[in-house]
Amino acid sequence: MVDVTDQLSQYATRLGDQIEPVELDEIEAIVHQQGNGGVSVLNLSPESAGSKRWPVVLAAAAAALVVVASVGVFLLIRDDDPTDVVTTPDPATTVTTEPGNDVRTGPPPSPFGPSYGYEPGWTELDGGPLAPRQGAATVWTGHTLLVVGGTNHTDGAAYQPEIGRWRPIADPPVAVGGYMNPSTAWTGSEALVLGRPSGQGAGGQVAFVAYDPWANSWRRLADAPPITSGPGALVWTGTEAILVGASAAYDPATDTWRSIDLPIPMPGYGASVAWTGDVLVQAVTGAPTVVYDPTTDSITYLDPPPNHGVDIEGGVVGGLAAFGDVVIVDEEGRASSLDLGTGAWTAEAIIETGSDPCQPVGYSLDDGRSVWDLCGRMWIRSFEGTWVAAGDGETTCCMRGTVSTGGALLAWVSNDDAVNDPSAPRKALWAWVPPEAPTPMVVLEDGTYEGHIKQVTLGPDHHVVTIELLEFFFGDDAAERAMADGAIDQPDGLPNPHYVRSVDLPVVLLEAGREAEVWVLNDTRDGVRLAPWDELAIDDGEPRGQLASPISHFPVEIVIEDGVVVEIRQFYVP
Amino acid sequence: MPAQSQHPADSRAADAARTDEWDAFAEFVAAVEPRLRRGLVGWCGSDAHDATAEALAWAWENWDRVQDLSNPAGYLYRVAQSKSRSPKQGRLPHPGEIGLPEVEPDLVPALVALPGKQRTAVWLVHGCGWSYAECAEAMEISASAVGTHVSRALEALRRRLEVDDG
Fold first, then answer.
1. How many CB atoms within 10 Å of residue B41?
2. Distances (CA, A) of A187 to A129, A212, B105
3. Which of A64, A159, B97, B149 could form a disulfide with A145 if both were Cys (CB 3.0 to 4.6 A apart)?
């Protein structure tokens, strides 16, 4: 009989033992390296560590009272400042909740990717140990940026933005990189990297290798078929790596390549592809759009992207990014989006005019926006299709190996070609962080929900309430539920006469109408009673009542009608 | 940084005090580091060494406060995580890769398939032997919620591995 807990213990113990212990001198070195300013830790202090702990007890004679004026940003009281925020927002998460809540999310999946505390815009970081070079292969592994190979170099290094440090990695068994466009893919456990082509142009087989960051080791894979057009672009589908330009797909499970029915793109346009999660889209202006479904190995042809009134002959290089829809930006800054449901393109905007043509590259962010790099001129597209300029940075995008962490871009910029780049040899690592994103809201089915108020943001048209969805149980029901959940072993095992159950991925943002009613527990001489918020309003500089608990400890029922919060009622937890 | 004496004539005493503090911190590291490293490896895989080092460096810089914490491992787990809000799971190797052929090969995919909170809770409690209180501190939830997540995680693991040891 397998004992799951014993197996888990064995596995965790062995895995922990595989990690080199941290020595004191290493800690000392980090402290010295970071100076007296120390390691900044977001919103953490030991004093606040327990501030979110359950249970929340609203004592009837609550001693710690919060003066209304200090939290007077609440609904119905002040709605004049759209930027008022009560607390720092948590990273929002949506997806599903307990049965019965049909949570329909806004466009973006979540949680958001990390931005590592960098300020919006470009920040230069440590360029790392590698010598300047061109065409290094770059991969984002979820925690680490890998930079390896490139023209005239074989070595590589890994940068971990969480701690801001580089470390060398093992050399690959073949020369890799040397491409101008993405030729790498991350499978979730390994980085797939194309070998460097021998000589110029198309030709023979291409070496193909995989790097395992866990083991810091490489392994040689089955050679890729010849790339007959473009530099080759790898697109990871979740099970296979499609090699655009070779019409082939690699299956890591079998270490084999199969030929696929994907048209060879026009020369030089190999990178203009996007993976939507289901299909691969290949588009250039002036040519039919190709939609390839790898599960059926079938092709659908759609109209070419719009030409924005410009007479375009032949393809124009563009970048594509996918995030539920597909967007193309051509080299003249003309942006268009494709609705895969209808197969129709929409001309969105001409985001740049008069600039030197360059090849835009698009990256998806986890908050639903995409960011576009037009040779260092950054543009952000909201999910709704609004384009906003987001500043300039390094202007030699072609020398970049850029990855998206989901919340930021990391760009390793390097060149050793002093003939064409007077500033060479050079290398630098840059981080780019977008301006603060609007957080998506969730629409819950009409009804009453329970939870903790986390934040209230007041807007000009509506308010936004951030709530941690919870379930509260009292009395016998509490013990019964806690027993059923395995939280306690004995019916009398609850430390308090209530039981609070988390809902999976509980933090949601809800729209609240400007006329939403708010009822709070008002602590008066006569005891605690539920009162309309405006009874507590400030009168002649003095509050007429006091909240029975701080806003951050605010168990509430929230009533939703027509998808909008219409009432918030604080309630008492014994 | 821990408090230092400002009196110029008393530098030797200050040095001695700092040495004492460092010795105490060394004892703290010896006790906490293995548990923290093992806890973090379930979250960030091979990056656990760096994450542990970073959290312990923070602990030294905030030693005045950290030495009074009741659940330092749990708290430093959060410190390590707060350096990155990355939700992404570090790679967990196949048991055979780390010399554990007797461990069910499906354990890893079953673990990875768990919702994040369940995975963290069951890893810390049953994988690392943390108490519910320590785990609650690390996850910023109540001990009873830890119990809920652990219970659900074990149920899912047993179902996935098609065993009944509970």
1. 27
2. 26, 10, 19
3. A159
Query: Which of A162, A217, A439, A481 is the best residue to mutate to test the B interface, defined by the most B CB atoms within 10 Å of its own CB?
Result: A162
The partner residue sitting opposite B53, judged by closest CB among A9, A10, A30, is: A30
* CA-to-CA dists, residue A475 to A210, A497, A566, angstroms: 57, 6, 29
Q: Tell me the chain A residues in contact with residue B139 when contact means C-beta distances shorter than 8 Å.
A: none
Cβ of B86 within 8 Å of Cβ of A162? The answer is: yes
Tell which residue, A307, A296, A268, A263, has the closest CA to residue A282.
A263
Tokens of B131: 């108490």
Q: What is the ipTM of this complex?
A: 0.87
Q: Which of A73, A58, A15 is nearest to A554 (CA)?
A: A58
- pLDDT at residue A67 greater than cutoff 60: no
Return the residue of B nearest to A16 by Cα: B38
Nearest to A280, CA basis, from A259, A266, A295: A295
- Residue A212 host element (H or E): strand A206-212
The two structure tokens encoding residue A309: 């009134």
The full DSSP string for A20-39 is PPPPHHHHHHHHHHHTTT--
Q: Is A376 left (phi over 0), alpha (psi -120 to 50) or beta?
A: left
The three state secondary structure string of A483-547 is HHHCCCCCCCCCCCCEEEEEEEEEEEEEEEEEEEEEEEEEEECCEEEEEEHHHHCEECCEECCCE
Q: Is the pTM of this model over 0.80?
A: no
Q: Cβ of A54 and B142 within 8 Å?
A: yes
- At residue A362, the 3 state secondary structure works out as strand
Label each residue of A453-493 as H, E or C: EEEEEECCCCEEEEEEEEEEEEHHHHHHHHHHHCCCCCCCC
Alpha-carbon gap: A498 to the closest alpha carbon of chain B (Å) = 11
The beta-strand segments (E) located in B22-130 are none
Q: If DSSP codes are grouped into helix, strand and coil, which group holds residue B83?
A: coil
- Separation between Cα atoms, residue A216 and residue A209, nearest integer Å: 13
Pair A24, B29: CB distance under 8 Å: yes
Contact A531, A520 (CB under 8 A): yes
Mutate: best of B27, B148, B149, partner A, most A CBs <10 A: B148
Q: Which chain A residue lies closest to B112 (C-alpha atoms)?
A: A188
pLDDT per residue over B45-64, tens digit each?
888 888 899 899 889 988 88
- DSSP readout, A167-189? EEEPPPSS-B---SS--EEE-SS
Contact A287, A296 (CB under 8 A): no
Cβ-Cβ contacts under 8 Å, B69 against chain A? 46, 49
Q: Are A12 and B38 within 8 A, CB to CB?
A: yes
Cα separations (Å) of A234 from A183, A247, A274?
5, 11, 10
Of A536-545, B24-33, B139-148, the range with the lowest mean pLDDT is: A536-545
